[in-house]
Every structure is written in structure tokens, then in C-alpha cells.
Specification:
alpha/beta; Rossmann fold; 2 domains; six-stranded parallel β-sheet; two-stranded antiparallel sheet; 8 strands; 46% helix
Length: 194
């Protein structure tokens, strides 16, 4: 089985870093829980909501990468989920260097066949499906796992099964809230069909 994963909020609990970076960028006294709600939609929407120019995206990327090095951690039982499949591929808006840094810090890099950093590699941002098409052409992707609607939209366009992590308010084929449940809540359905 081959899985395409989102990174932030799906593999790693990086939302505290994303929120802190966003608040620093805004130079406003923002409510972290409100910022998180907007960022979970997507950063483009959050930028617009708070009146922050898209020209500052690179500055935001630097800020959240700084905070990510300090506070981001993999979700509990993630390693067991990763080790239970054939190929794990990441498609992320995060820079490849910061993604690798976090994977290496927690000894998880060995589980990933490929990491696609969407913008660095010339793809349009999700929910555009071009990065997913690229991965699907290289690997037979069975499942896409993400925590936001924009992670799953490209999969649905390409007729790939989806799983939503910690978010039952988006359209998905499967839902799970803890990686300790991943094998029964998600993978069990695939093996049952074989």
C-alpha cells in the first residue's frame, strides 16, 4: 500500500508553530485559537482575513520554520502507522529542508520514499492537483491522508481514496483521530477488500 501524506497538522503537530509564526508576522495581539481556525482552512484565507499581503509569505515561511524547529513533534503512534505500509510520500507546502530537519530529528526520514515541496518544485499550491498527479505517476497511490479539505480535494479529483485526520468536518472516505487507531480505522478497510 502506498500513501500520500500531508505534513503540517497530519504527521506533525506543527500548528502551534504555524500559529506563533502567523501572530509574529501580523504584529497584532491575535487570539491563537481564532488564528488556528483560519489557518486550518488555509493560509491564503488567513492572510486575507487578517489583511496581510501575500508578498509577506516568504517572511511567514521563515517564522514558522523557526518555531517548528523548537515546538513541532510527530503525533503519538505515527511511526507504527508509517511502518505498516509500503511507500510513504509527503506532499507539503513546507520547505523541503525544514521537513527533512524535523523527520531526521525524530528518526522518521527512513519511512519516506519521497518528499515533494510543492512550491519549491514548481507546482501550484493545494488544492491544485498537479503535485498529486506527479506522485501518482511515480507511485500507485492508494490513499491520501490530510487534516484539511485542501489536502483531500486533489485526491478526490484524481479518484484516490482519502482519510481525514482529526477532522470529521471535511469530506473523506475514512476518519481517524489517533494514529493508534490508524490500522483498524483505515488500513483494515483496504485489507478487507482484498
Amino acid at each position: 500500500m502506498n500513501i500520500l501524506w500531508d505534513f503540517d497538522g497530519t504527521l506533525f503537530d506543527s500548528y502551534p508553530a504555524l500559529v506563533e509564526g502567523f501572530i509574529q508576522l501580523s504584529k497584532q495581539n491575535l487570539d491563537p485559537s481564532e488564528v488556528l481556525t483560519w489557518l486550518k482552512k488555509d493560509s491564503k484565507t488567513a492572510f486575507k482575513h487578517y489583511g496581510i499581503s501575500e508578498d509577506r509569505r516568504e517572511e511567514y515561511r521563515e517564522l514558522y520554520n523557526h518555531y517548528a524547529k523548537i515546538s513541532s513533534t510527530p503525533f503519538p503512534f505515527l511511526e507504527e502507522a508509517l511502518s505498516s505500509v509500503d511507500h510513504n510520500i509527503i506532499v507539503t507546502h513546507r520547505e523541503k529542508a525544514s521537513t527533512l530537519l524535523l523527520l531526521e530529528k525524530f528518526d522518521l526520514k527512513k519511512y519516506f520514499t519521497e518528499i515533494v515541496s510543492v512550491e519549491e518544485e514548481g507546482f501550484k499550491r493545494k488544492p491544485d492537483s498537479s503535485s498529486y498527479e506527479y506522485v501518482r505517476n511515480r507511485f500507485n497511490i492508494d490513499l491520501v491522508v490530510g487534516d484539511r479539505e485542501l489536502d483531500l480535494i486533489p485526491a478526490r479529483k484524481l479518484d484516490i481514496k482519502t482519510a481525514a485526520f482529526e477532522n470529521r468536518n471535511i469530506q473523506a472516505d475514512y476518519y481517524f483521530d489517533r494514529y493508534s487507531d490508524f490500522q483498524t480505522a483505515v488500513l483494515g478497510h483496504f485489507s478487507a477488500k482484498k
